[in-house]
Amino acid sequence: MNQKFNLKSVDKEAMIESIKEYFKRERNEELGDLAASLILDFFTEELAPLFYNIGIEDAHTYINSKLEEIFELQK
Questions:
Q1: Total count of domains within the chain
Q2: Considering the domain boundaries, does residue 46 fall inside one?
Q3: Of 21, 49, 56, 67, which has the most beta carbons under 10 Å away?
Q4: How confident is the model at residue 2 (pLDDT cuts 50, 70, 90)?
């Protein structure tokens, strides 16, 4: 899948800060903006599509269950 996720600048900045805080808290490592940005790029390119597809599958399952409920209303 070659889906490109376009992040708003403000959201990307918040995610970079979150990554930096995580590395400081969990690994006692100070990451710079570039390193955190590269990690975010990796997650966005490699992992986000997998989570996106899980969300699509969940939505599909939910919609199908609701459609079944509608068909059960037929007399």
A1: 1
A2: yes
A3: 49
A4: low
Residue 29 lies in a domain: yes
Q: What is the rounded distance in angstroms from the CA atom of residue 55 to the CA atom of residue 29?
A: 32
Taking the mean position of all CA atoms in its chain, how far away is CA 27?
A: 23
Tokens found for residue 36: 């955190």
Domain that includes residue 14, residue range: 9-72
CB 37 within 8 A of CB 15: no
- For 3, the 3-state DSSP assignment is coil
| Angle, alpha carbons 24-28-31 (nearest 5°) | 50
4 domain-assigned: no
Is 20 inside any structural domain? yes
pLDDT tens digit sequence for 17-64: 999 999 999 999 999 999 999 999 999 999 999 999 999 999 999 999
- The SS3 of residue 44 is helix
